[in-house]
Amino acid sequence: MGLTRRPATIAWPGWRHLPREARDTLFLLAVIAWTVLPHVGQLPVWCTALTAAVLLWRGALAVRGAALPSRWVLAGVLLLALALTFMTHRTLLGKESGITLLVVLVALKTLELRARRDAFAVFFLGFFLVLTHFLSSQSMVIAAAMLVSVWGLMTALVLAHMPVGQPGLGRAGALAGRFALLGAPVMLLLFLLFPRIGPLWGVPNDAGAKTGLSGEMRVGMIAELAADDSIALRVRVLAGTPPPPEQLYFRGPVLTGFDGTTWRVGSPRFASGAALARNLRPIGEPVELEVTVEPSRLSTIPALEATPALPPLENLRTQLLDDLHWITSRPLAERIRYTAPSWPRFAHGPTEPTLGLQDALDLPPGFNPRTLEWAAALRRDPRYAQADGNTLAAALMQHIRRENYSYTLAPGLYDEAQRGTAIDEFWLDGKAGFCEHFATAFVVILRALDVPARVVTGYQGAERNPIDGTLVVRNSFAHAWAEYWQPGQGWVRADPTAAVAPERIDRSRPLAPAPGFVATAFGGVAPDALLQLRALWESANNAWNQWVLNYSRGTQFDLLKRLGYASPSWEDLALLLIVVASGLSLAVAGWAWWEHRRVDPWLRAYARVRQAAAALGLDAGDGMPPRTLAAILRARHGAAADPALRALHALEWLRYARPDGPGANPASAPQARRLAAAAVTTLRSLKPYTPPSAATDPISR
């Protein structure tokens, strides 16, 4: 019977038994894998698979101690990666293709780790790969993950500079951490004073923009946002009385044009002289707010009604339209923060009939005939034949309460046959809908009653974060309400949602979709834990956004003003950076010089002992250890020198027997000083030594 040959397998010898080269290589591969991991969601699938295969291949070679592949194999894999990159991105230039190629190159370079210079190339490619993450996201999670990557790469770099022996990862990691802490002041200085030049210091254009409100609204669109629990804006009350929930209306696009299915921002059909005037009339005292708006796809800034003025924003032009809607020169691709006074109570718009109000009366022909007939029947009612907007709006609110309408995220589909009867089916048949259903029906009926009306979109309500006290407005707080025109008053807000679901307005309780299995299970065990964790995370993320990501050029100039600069400029900022950096460099150089000249505390203590011995006539040279000096003292002074002998033996043990001598353990330095003081005290109590004749001198004999 012949012998069967078993296939070769990789035997894991254990981490401590690995050769030094294999251990260091596996650690470097783990750091590279950790650094690439956040890119996986954006990399092509083939790039992720190829990178994982190469890293696993290199790890197997390290464990087995096998030879590295030839350069021809690497060249073939590289050509394949170039071809796949071009097929995926249609170019080899640009951010996405560049990151893809960089990830592949870092992985392939690990197959060339034949010398220290190859390792250094991998280290610095890894540092460059760390930077690429911030082109896509500058979140706190990415920053923390990349901090770990930098520490890992620095640890690998330290190991590369320790060619002798097998130093432990703990020791190398501690040394890398110490180097990072020494560089932290320089990092902080550059963060504070290095000029912010966009877009280098801004949030990436494609990093934070999320779906949210739009410049148009179709029935059912805002209900889709109810599942989006991400944050739209954060509000902090700086001064004044915080508004109650029912006054927290953050105004977005105002929609006037209606084609029967979709509302859009309307374009005035009349000359500018006939356009509706803003005519804002604040009532009462304002409230000072600090508002942080997250990136969005809109060229609009949601602001609490009514905010008549915004401060200048960096690289962004703003304009307040006559409908109290703030617009910007470009979409909000970056997070912005502003501080401005707002008036929760106000009046605005023309108080007398104006030609421009005709835009708010238009209805498309042929749509929703039954609703229009219902409105005509209401007008024929003697009670409402001559009624104004206030009376008709109150009648509609009362109708919603009386007819048992329901507020729901899933009202079903209206007008599936696309006959232009969606409002007919909602108002007269289904009677179940979300805020845009009620706002649309409300405005259409008022227009049918010859009352100018329009739809306003934005956010309503907020929830208070118990950790930092900020008011958090989520995309799920997206809302639609109505405005109608009343002679002598101007535009009047009317929110039909308050009639069907008052808790939505009065208590800021938006509808939410049914939770998933995990959320349900977690909530059943600890119902408040999930909310507390979310509040803690959002508070920390808000602090990161405010203090790090929102540290801008304006903030730098504000810092200079607090330091005494009346009119700070770029020259002042550069000069201060140079002065502080030079002072810090001189301080570091002085510390290095002092460290170089500093005497070991044990040597300093022992020098005092040798000096006292010299006063007794003993020549204790620099090379004489404490044990030899103790032997001389015993021979010459006998039992009188015993306290000094014990102190000298203890000094010797402290220096050579303990692993944490005075140079390694600061607590040992005082012990050395105490022992030296005890020895010196004993030596000073002894009589000076007089050499006897050679015949009786024990040393000479």
Distance between the termini: 83 Å
Q: Report the β-strand fraction as a percent range.
A: 5-15%
Q: What oligomeric state best describes the polypeptide chains here?
A: single chain
Mean pLDDT: 81
Percent of residues in helices comes to 40-55%
Task: Give the radius of gyration.
Answer: 39 Å
Number of strands: 19
Most strands sheet: 5 strands, antiparallel
Low-pLDDT regions: 1-8, 199-209, 659-667, 694-701
Give, in spatial order, the strands making up the sheet with the most strands: 11-7-2-17-16
Shape: elongated
Helix count equals: 22
Secondary-structure class = alpha+beta
Fold and architecture overview:
The protein is an alpha+beta fold and 701 residues long. Helix content is 46%, strand content 12%. A hairpin with a 3-residue loop joins strand 18 (478-486) and strand 19. Helix 6 (140-160) packs across helix 7. It starts with 19 loop residues before the first helix and ends in a 16-residue tail after the last helix. Residues 1-8, 199-209, 659-667 and 694-701 have low confidence and may be disordered.
